[in-house]
Write a structure and sequence with these properties.
Layout lengths: L3 E6 L6 H17 L6 E6 L5 H8 L4 E5 L16 H6 L4 E4 L2 H6 L4 H13 L3 E6 L3 H5 L3 H13 L4 H4 L3 E4 L13 H19 L1 H4 L4 E4 L4 H8 L6 E4 L6 H8 L3
Parallel strand pairs: 1-2, 1-8, 2-3, 3-4, 4-5, 5-6, 6-7, 7-8
Helix pairs in contact: 1-12, 5-7, 7-9, 11-12
The structure holds 2-phosphoglycolic acid.
Length: about 250
C-alpha cells in the first residue's frame, strides 16, 4: 500500500526562535496524539533551520524536507544549495517545482526535471508539485497542463527512480487563497495523474506513488479530501505554521 504523507511547507516564514517553537509544538502535539503508523509526517522549514529541525526529528516521528535545491551539482553557483549538501545533512525529502518557484523564479519543467535528477542521485525523495493556474482551469485546460508538467518533469525517469518520487497536485488558484479545490475536482486530477503513471510505468507502480493534494488544506477540509481514492495526503502551507492544525490534518485519514 502506498504511504499516507502530510508535509508542511513553511515557505519563507519564521525567525529562528519561531521555528524552534513550531518544531517543539509539533513534537508536543505528536506526544499527545497518536499518529497512525502508516502516516508519514514531513516538515519542510526554510534552509537555515534544517539542521535544528533534523536534530529534533531524530527524537521524534517526522522526517525533514527542504523547499528547494539547485539544479547544478556543485561549484560556483553563489547562494545555491546542492542535493549533495542536503544528503550530507541527512535530509530525506525536497519540494521541487512549487508554483511559487515556477511563477517567481522562472522554474521551468526542464529545471524541475534537472532538480529531480540531482535529488535522486543523492538519495533524496523529490516532492514534485504540479497544478494549473486559474486561467487554465477556466479555459478547461487543467488536465492538459498537469499532463505536460508530469511528463516533462518526470517521464525521463526509470521505473526504479519513479518509485522514489512523491507528486503533489496543487491548483495554483487554491494556494494561500482559502479557496480549496472540491474533493471531486482534486480527485479528478489525482486519478488523471495516476492514469498517466500507469500508462507509462504500469498500474502496479502507479498504485505505489503517493499523490498529495495542496492548496488551502486545513483541519476542517482535510478529512473529505483524504477520503478520496487517489488522494494520499497533503502538502500544507499556511496551516503547517500552527502545530495543532498541522498535526490535526495528519490525523484526518
Ligand atoms: P496553502 O499552501 O496550504 O497555504 O494554500 C500550500 C502550498 O503552497 O504548498
Amino acid at each position: 500500500m502506498r504511504k499516507h504523507i502530510v508535509a508542511g511547507n513553511w515557505k519563507m516564514n519564521c525567525t529562528f526562535t519561531e521555528a524552534d517553537e513550531l518544531v517543539n509544538g509539533i513534537m508536543e502535539q505528536l506526544e499527545e496524539k497518536e499518529l497512525p503508523r502508516e502516516t508519514q509526517l514531513i516538515v519542510c522549514p526554510p534552509l537555515p533551520y534544517l539542521e535544528m529541525t533534523t536534530d529534533y526529528a531524530n527524537d521524534s516521528y517526522f522526517l525533514v524536507g527542504a523547499q528547494n535545491v539547485s539544479d547544478q551539482e556543485r561549484g560556483a553557483y553563489t547562494g545555491e544549495v546542492s542535493a549533495e549538501m542536503l544528503e550530507s545533512m541527512e535530509i530525506d525529502y525536497c519540494i521541487v517545482g512549487h508554483s511559487e518557484r515556477r511563477q517567481y523564479y522562472g522554474e521551468t519543467d526542464a529545471i524541475v526535471a534537472a532538480k529531480v535528477d540531482r535529488l535522486l542521485a543523492h538519495g533524496l525523495k523529490p516532492i514534485v508539485c504540479v497544478g494549473e493556474v486559474l486561467e487554465e482551469r477556466e479555459a478547461g485546460r487543467q488536465l492538459e497542463v498537469v499532463k505536460r508538467q508530469v511528463e516533462q518533469g518526470l517521464f525521463h525517469l526509470t521505473a526504479e527512480q519513479m518509485q522514489e518520487v512523491v507528486i503533489a497536485y496543487e491548483p495554483v488558484w487554491a494556494i494561500g487563497t482559502g479557496r480549496t479545490a472540491t474533493p471531486e475536482q482534486a480527485q479528478e486530477i489525482h486519478a488523471h495523474i495516476r492514469s498517466l503513471l500507469a500508462a507509462k510505468y504500469g498500474q502496479a507502480l502507479a498504485d505505489e506513488v503517493s499523490i498529495l493534494y495542496g492548496g488551502s488544506c486545513k483541519p476542517s477540509n482535510a478529512k473529505e479530501l483524504f477520503a478520496c481514492a487517489d488522494i494520499d495526503g497533503g502538502l500544507i502551507g499556511g496551516a503547517s505554521l500552527k502545530a495543532e492544525d498541522f498535526v490535526a490534518i495528519a490525523m484526518s485519514f
